[in-house]
Amino acid sequence: MNETTTSSLDESRELITFRMSDQEFCVDIMAVREIRGWTQTTPLPQSPQYVMGVINLRGAVLPVVDLSRRLGLGPTEPKARHVIIVVNIGTRLVGLLVDGVSDILTVTDESVQPTPQVACDVVDSFVKGIVTLEGRMISWILLDEILPEPKEAAA
After folding, report:
1. E strands of the chain, at which residues?
2. Side-chain-facing half-sphere of 117: CA atoms under 13 Å
3. Which of 3, 11, 85, 123 is least enclosed by beta carbons within 10 angstroms?
4. pLDDT at 59 over 60
């Protein structure tokens, strides 16, 4: 296998796309564990506004984040058509509430444009780049910043 072939194989990756507030977003499919229908959450006291609460996922407590609210697009009023994308963020499982999953894309580095400089660190911390494909513009979400690391327990 020559270097060009190896390089082009390394550049392609699969992304799962979803919709929120009439916009398209995507995440790396390798972080996605499953996609579930909307389930009512149990609120947690003193949690950030974007954390809707928790659900029971086969015996594990799963926090559910309103991704629209977390990205500053406004709160979601969940309905039966909404879905929860269960993702791995570091060592934690987190549910992301979205309007619906669209499809799976295979993209190369050439189809990912850098995030535009809009003098806003928040955009840079959440958006890895913009995928331009077949006339669509899809924001690639970085999952690392969606749920901050838990604070260290006081000694």
Report:
1. 13-20, 23-28, 32-37, 51-57, 60-66, 83-89, 92-98, 100-107, 112-113, 127-133, 136-141
2. 0
3. 3
4. yes
